[in-house]
Amino acid sequence: MADFVRDDAGPSTRPGNGALITPLIAGTASAPGDTLMSMDASPVTGLILSGGGARAAYQVGVLKAVARIRRDCNGPTGNPFDVITGTSAGAINAATLACRADNFDEALATLVDTWSHFSVDQVYRSDSFGVVQTGARWLTMLSIGWVLAKWRHARPRSFLDNSPLRELLTKLVPVERLQGVMSQGHLKALAVSASGYGSGLHVTFYDDLVGVPPWNRSQRIAMRQAITIEHLMASSAIPFVFPAVALGPEGGREFFGDGSMRQSAPISPAVHLGAERILVIGAGRLHEPLVPSGSRAGSGEYPNLAQIAGHALSSIFLDALAVDIERLQRINKTLSLLPPEARGRSELRPIDVLVIAPSQRLDDIAARHLQSLPPLIRALLRGVGVSGQGAQARGSALASYLLFEAPFTCELLALGEADTLSRSDEVARFFGWDRRGKPRSDVPADAECDASGVMQGNFFSTQKSAH
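and the corresponding structure tokens:
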């Protein structure tokens, strides 16, 4: 059996079989500043918001429900999350909450309003000139690129031009407030991740209150620096779809893309920054039920470019988080089997984790809203294979990451809120809020827990650690 050591305890270690093990549970700090720990009886609470483009609307619905549950329980006011980390579109949600952490309810209201009234024009250009400059030229390069290769100025940098997103972020995320919010005690740390195209490294950029030392692991490192709009643009630069963003000083700049790429341990940054219990909000179902072969439209046909791209993006955005959660649960389970004396001598410590993920396939929801996209974007996506509507749609997985339109995002907001309210008791117990005398939330009749705590009906999962 592999010997796991804490993730903040120096160089990565290898078990006897030589396979690299990157554990998720940090050990007790051996020196001041190793991890950022709570100074009172309340555990340090972390929030992890994963990537997923327009799917990140689901996260805001979950947080809206969490705020409602807190009000129902007469829970403490203020920001409920000491450490906030995010990736891709989740980084944008995370930074919005962090930079406005002195008024959590107002920050959440801002996110709800933004996602409730979204249009693609706020994220990427859908006008004829913008589409011709990027997407149409990109498709042309795919088909007759050998003719145009010698004209460097004709080479597009991405499928879409997301320059409008920068303007939205300057209004949505007041990054200049972050230091003040932390110094006033409303937040301990913010971290966002991006992937370096030159170095191949996954980099976590973080800013914190006490100066947690940067960590360095196989293929992933951390850098402590002030978080800017450019960090958010880089973290949310979906590969091929949006252009890479240069970060770093002159002479040492590197181009970065979406932080979900090469993200082998998405829970790790929150643990490094001292989180002792963590709420993880996904942007896709972490466990898909088995479906009969050929039951989905077009499943028996050779996959087109859109289907392959959607499958690849789902792998980038969803798989690492699911694996990381399972690993964390296994380590928690192992620790629970140890006698108290052995746990006391271990460098590992258990982490409470509550995982909320969609109860429905977001691809299927996106398929119902393909017509919400502007005509030019629909035409562009049709060129790579997105077609049909509803049950007959093909390529809806790819479209789901780009569907920044209110009909789609509002349905995801409602789903996130409903999924969370259906598990109000677990949420209240996780945060330590008192639900005595409150009516018990209805649980779907088809939802049953297996031994690991994963809901088999709606795939909302919760794992309580050993103490």
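(Above: one complete record from the training split.) Residues 1-39, 440-467 have pLDDT under 50 and may be disordered.
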